[in-house]
């Protein structure tokens, strides 16, 4: 008997595994970034891939679903308390303090916080790349790719160390810094507003001046915060999975390895829990307002909470408010507080009329998905920018958290519900969102699997990566052509002068002779 | 009885029509452009849309399949003989004469031919836009969109006159002129080679200088050939359906309303006619070589035909040569001449080893689709560029039509068959071609239907359209900032000089006093 059959079966099994089931290593992430990434990972598992998630010893979000994914835990020499305290400090700064500071104070405080953030990030990173056992384990596991949200740095270094393709998924980087400088994404400042610039794609002259200066200024700030080498390594990423689309973002130039999957986590509404459904149904024709300031903001000052509650009490809708603080005194009978709400299912409910949101990208996309107009109370990070996008597209109004009064909130809610143009705009964005060749989730999964099948996606990589910045902008060519032109001009002038002189000389000689 | 039921049915029928069956008006086109467009139109008909094709009274290709599409004939005050004679003259110039001319002669002859081409194009266009009955008819028919290959000009004007969305499908325009200047497609000359420049995306310094100059030079030439206003109107196009993809083209920046559907006409091979199949099978393990110089080249000189035939006679494969001229004396027993060959089915046959082609985009894409390496004998238009792409990607070698000898052709065929790297590269391109989220045909149909459903695709349109060229490149912002900088510098210098003088004066006064 020959060993062939068993060898063949083994071979088939091996081929079967590499063809259908890949091994995806997932970089640690946190908060809304994790919420956004999970549906993609779940789909990958459904499709027979093995998903292994790197989880730091201190993690706020990445703790559940132990059964679905493999988890690879690593040590971070930092306590969860210290980390959460830092996060609270950061949030407090951006929500409450920033509005009352001058630019220099903001810059100085921001840089201080960023420095601590880098220190912490390095501690996280050390847990992976400085641990020999961890690296050996990861190398031995033969992953097909590393999937990462670059907000937690070091995935590029790790992918490089493991020699596997890097696949990035991000909402944005400050001033599109990583996309522009590392991935060569073109961003003409004349019609591509820098992230956090609070500008749209329609800019006046002075706004264009501001935007033009905003890019390099942020580049300088970010230069201090990211490792210089990181940019080249990050530039090796095969695919940049952007969590936006043209329902949300302003149209702009992009590259073949940029894929837009905004709303990758959205899904049809499921039935509500019985008590919530009863409260929702009690709203009658007026419908409901869904209100959440996101998962990071837990408490408000008593004053703020009362002001908000009194604003909510004045609208005819029933309000579902996700709020974990103490019950405000001015809370109306139309408002109910919840520790947690099934936000997506509420927004997809036929009775949903409006969404009051801090403007986190995930929530905004759920509202787009279900076509619900928004009242934005943006707090920090990309939230002001996100709400600006929705406002520019006619699907939202915004109120300022620190300046708003009860009436402002009430008027904002009434405006977006009574003025039908907001609902129409929201529905238009919803149609754009749904009417695309492939759902965001399917597209994300397709390109992840593509990267595993082809061990990267080098055919989508522009040659610009091999050019210096002055070569990219043809400045060397321009200098050369200018030099040639000046040389020719000089030659021409010299020749003319020479001829002219000879002429004059001759005349003079003639005259003298005469 | 109420009239409701019948009204309801009528309403449902109307809704049904506008939701499922749209009315597509197709601009007249010719040759390979028509071959490429037909499969898309057939799919549209299959999906319940009504397709009406504008057909000039003189047409070489658009005559068949009267049953599938509606045809709207219009008069052209030009005879088919004159038109075909012009075409032959143009082809003869580019294939036989150009190689023996200097640049000035080429430019002068080319401009002469272009001028005639414009005159003819205008005669075609007049048949539509200057015919009142035709315009009235078209307006009355209430089309949902106009689908056009802009190589035959005037579709933008017509769409504007009819007030319907314009949907363009093209392989390229000279120096990406229309895409760049009308559609705002970014094309940094440092890594995006101009079409017809015979450059790849990897350029040396001198090549970058050439490319940098090639864009504006071609812009100037084209400025003479297209109507100035046309650019703005062409810029109104909702979608630009480009007949390339990253299996064929070099990765480059693009815009949200650019969709890449190269190979839209490709399909799996069908069984061959019996006689051809028998000849193919007689090739044994050596396999077959498929040879065609395209539909426009009908005859070669006797000398040329003999030289080619003798080259083909020296390879071990069986050769199927699509050739309508007289049978060359040196024709080997391994070669058979055909008036017409089922090219796609032959390239998809397991015995296909190589494809000898003039490098037309349609044929090249069929070779990519089936993963067949190519010998290119490029003749004119985009053919040299197409073959350069395939050569750069390792799937082809090229020979020069005017300089080649029998041995060159024989060696080229032997090289791409014996050196396995060519087959591997062709297979790699084939994998890239097939492994995409949606087939090119499905994607083309999706965006056509999208344009009808949403009456355009304005959400994909960049704001760059509203900027002048100097605003686009932020030159006004730069000038302003430079002025401010110089003003400040001047102020600083003046202030310093003033202070310095005061200091000096004081000292002088002091000294004098001393």
TrEMBL record, chains A, B:
It catalyses: glucuronate acceptor + UDP-alpha-D-glucuronate = acceptor beta-D-glucuronoside + UDP + H(+). The chain crosses the membrane at residues 477-500. One of its GO terms (cellular component) is membrane. It is a single-pass membrane protein. It is found in: Membrane. It holds the Pfam family UDPGT. One of its GO terms (molecular function) is glucuronosyltransferase activity. PROSITE patterns: UDPGT. Belongs to the UDP-glycosyltransferase family. This is UDP-glucuronosyltransferase. The lineage of its organism: Eukaryota, Metazoa, Chordata, Craniata, Vertebrata. The gene is LOC107386290.
